[in-house]
């Protein structure tokens, strides 16, 4: 009689929101096309910047200096706040009840094995950064320690040098990637939305605004941040390749003309890669690159000061952990010297990671389908950081050891592009190692431009995982142009041009990062898994209290119809749009269509195209998979 009396509320597809198993992006029906507003605004702004930078570099430099000075004076605190808030928020999220929610449908197994997933995260932590900053950054802190810390070239400065480097490249950096990656993966593989940054905000902005100007603005910010962040990485690669050319050729110095020529040659390689469909070959080269990079670090460890490194590495990690809160507390309030240091280093890195987060985030989202939020967040934050601690400890420790032994010569200031080549000059096989280093950097340049351009193509085609090749090539060429302008702005100190523009263009997306936290948590509160947890806790609590009160120890639980307002879901309006709108299935035109969640059948008989679509998606996943990983490495 209870079942006869019960009148089921009206739910989409006649399924309660707590029972929806989730929706994957490939379960949905959507028509992809170029978003003319996103492509037009982002394209016009960036092309205009490149033209301005080439025609009037002095004018661009003057405006950039003013904007950079204002940003550092007024918004340096924002970058420090974002880095701290993101890390703390994700650690809380990982250990909360939301940590068990899968980034996929209920019962879905991870797409990649744990070993493969860890290997790709390892790959994402290696690249140009290890080759460029790995030796030079710790050496810089050893010779000129951060203000108000230690005496130059002291034992304390040695360990703090590694700790400061780890601070810039460790948990905070990867937390930013994990935030974007986790939110994108949740939206795409749990809620069935497109692989767009704007998809994260549907619950916060509403569907109309998310698919309208607000979502388009977010995607434009993501494209601009990615363009300048990736261009900075390409610029760093060019600086170091150019230094290698100087050493191998015996030229006196690296000129602007030589840098532009290097960018042009490597950009041709990227265009060939993008239009010829040789992405698998590029991927294999990238994988070889990772092996070579790891092998290079291993060679330094064996041929360099091995015993010294064995003692230094664990000490450096413990110094990082012990001084983490002290480093997090430093800001402009510590004085002008600290402000100058933060401008050149800490804030620059936070801005760089923010700029890279759309690119790297989408990559790690695509390899993490099926993992729980807890597995994802802890894995992404801890695993690549651990690898970088080892790699940077080896590179930086070797550079410091050689400097103390007088093998790097006298230096008042460290020139980052030169340190690596000065190191290998003191090792066996020093004749061919510079050529090997330049080859590694060149491949990283091509794969960085290739994969980052694909991601920007996705953002400009409403989430298509196979954007048109012309759009991919367009973004790659614009990226190369921005790299040229960045290097020209820096003049004799090209790194300054890279740093200032990365910090300026990352400001809008820094605010987006904070909104992502709010939007993602709001989504998780209405997740089917969360609803089931709420019902379970309420039902068990109420039943236990009632059972003990009525029957002492002799009671058991059973499911029966409760009076309205007295059941497990008494505090939940399960018919509210917050819980039901997201799983209403639609056709390609956005019109509601019937769907049977039990059988997976559409009411109008539509079936997914499992042949060409799957093949294309798989190929694209390959293309922006390990390639994308190395690109993160390209910046790191």
UniProtKB/TrEMBL annotation:
Q: Where is the composition biased (Acidic residues)?
A: 604-620
Protein localization: Cell membrane
Question: Do the record's keywords include Transferase?
Answer: no
Identify the InterPro entries for this entry: BCCT_CS (IPR018093), BCCT_transptr (IPR000060)
Q: List all membrane-crossing ranges.
A: 37-55, 75-95, 115-134, 171-189, 217-238, 258-278, 290-310, 347-365, 377-403, 423-449, 470-489, 501-521
Alphabetized UniProt keyword annotations: Cell membrane, Membrane, Transmembrane, Transmembrane helix, Transport
| Membrane topology qualifier | Multi-pass membrane protein
From the UniProt entry, list the residue stretches annotated as the region Disordered: 585-636
Question: Mind telling me which PROSITE patterns this protein's record contains?
Answer: BCCT
Q: Which top-rank group of organisms is this from?
A: Bacteria
What does the sequence similarity comment in the record state about its family?
Belongs to the BCCT transporter (TC 2.A.15) family.
List the NCBIfam families hit by this protein, alphabetically.
bcct (TIGR00842)
What is the name listed in the Swiss-Prot or TrEMBL entry for this protein? BCCT family transporter
Native source species? Brachybacterium tyrofermentans
